[in-house]
Design goal:
The protein is an alpha+beta fold and about 325 residues long. The chain folds into 2 domains: about 180 residues, Ribosomal Protein S5, domain 2; about 140 residues, GHMP kinase, C-terminal domain (Alpha-Beta Plaits). About 40% of the residues lie in helices and about 25% in strands. The protein is built from 11 helices and 13 strands. Strands 1, 2, 3, 4, 5, 6, 7, 12 and 13 form a 9-stranded mixed sheet that branches. Strands 9-10-8-11 form a 4-stranded antiparallel sheet. A hairpin with a 7-residue loop joins strand 9 and strand 10. It is globular and about 60 Å long. The protein starts with 6 loop residues before the first strand and ends with a strand.
């Protein structure tokens, strides 16, 4: 193992503007998926501190800690993460997990945690892994070892980082960083609020309905996913053409379509907060993640973000501005 001093890995969270859901099997294998997203300046930090005692993993977000013990079958997420360290022969020391947002809030925190842990493990083992390799392994780990229903957007968006358009095919993922559009990106960044609904959920529970319907070739679901995929393509063109109004219009249309994918995508509370936002200076709004709970993405009208933030604090205790993060999963400190 490399060194004896603390090592810190970091993964940014992500927000998705359009195309979410088209990255989830079986749709991309048969129709091809597409999303447009960015990483942001909120994230998950994983710190390793070496000592001579059995490995301990702790998380303030889960309010839990676990110690490595042989013969125990991994149960919850921290125990499953413990198994990753054990498999890679990291069996002593302390692992400390901190997240800027609650788990299950629609910003890809599960994939942020998994990619950060894998990055840390390979750093400790002195092994090089590319961003694409970390993303691929994180996806397989969450799907096959953790039993999570997810698409490929989160691990790839988070590991690669930046403002980008992505395509999902049967045999791979294509990443297109959107460059030379700084004025559009800065304008969009300056108008975004994240509004917490006050509750979290397991995305797998919400997404399973979509997966089951798509697997049965439900034509309503498939046709709606095609529309979402094409909207992501259109949003990419809007960025290139610097057409902010069309970009935000497609955010709203995408949310209207997304609500048709399942019975638990939205609820009265979410609809009420979005309606209040649009009545008080927002131009666009949608829920992040699979649906049901978590963070809302609100895009204000130009020069109205300050007033809108004050208004939104009437309906949520956690309303934040964000900046986009151009980088993905990385080692941020070796003291």
């Amino acid at each position: 193992m490399v060194g004896i001093k603390p090592v810190v890995s970091y993964s940014p969270l992500r927000i998705s503007f359009g195309g979410g859901g088209t990255d989830i099997s079986p749709f991309p294998e048969t129709h091809g998926g597409a999303v447009i997203n960015t990483t942001i300046d909120r994230g998950v930090t994983v710190t390793y501190k070496e000592d001579r005692y059995p490995l301990e993993i702790s998380s303030r977000d889960f309010v839990s800690s676990y110690i490595l013990s042989s013969g125990r079958k991994p149960g919850n997420v921290l125990e499953k993460l413990m198994d990753l360290f054990d498999t890679n022969e990291i069996r002593t020391g302390r692992v400390i997990i901190n997240s800027d947002v609650p788990p299950g809030s629609g910003l890809g925190s599960s994939s942020a945690l998994t990619t950060a842990v894998l990055k840390l493990i390979y750093e400790l083992r002195g092994k090089d892994r590319s961003e694409m390799e970390i993303a691929s392994e994180a996806f397989e780990t969450e799907k096959n070892k953790f039993g999570v229903t997810l698409g490929k957007q989160d691990p790839y968006a988070i590991s690669l980082g930046g403002f980008k358009f992505m395509k999902f095919r049967k045999d791979g993922v294509d990443n297109y960083s959107i460059r030379n559009q700084d004025s559009f990106v800065r304008n969009l960044e300056s108008r975004i609020l994240l509004v917490y609904t006050g509750e979290t959920r397991e995305s797998s529970d919400v997404l399973m309905e979509q997966v089951q319907k798509a697997s049965r070739n439900d034509q309503d679901v498939l046709s709606n996913l095609v529309v979402l995929r094409d909207l992501a393509e259109n949003m990419r063109k809007s960025v290139i053409n610097e057409d902010m109004d069309k970009f935000i219009e497609d955010i709203n249309e995408g949310w209207d379509i997304k609500k048709k994918l399942g019975t638990n995508v939205t609820n009265n509370k979410i609809d009420r907060i979005i309606r209040n936002a649009l009545d008080n200076g927002a131009q666009g709004a949608k829920l992040m993640g699979g649906g049901s709970q978590g963070f809302l993405l609100i895009v204000s009208k130009e020069e109205m973000i300050s007033e809108l933030q004050k208004k939104m604090l009437q309906w949520s205790k956690f309303v934040i501005r964000i900046k986009f993060d151009p980088a993905g999963t990385r080692i941020i400190s070796r003291f």
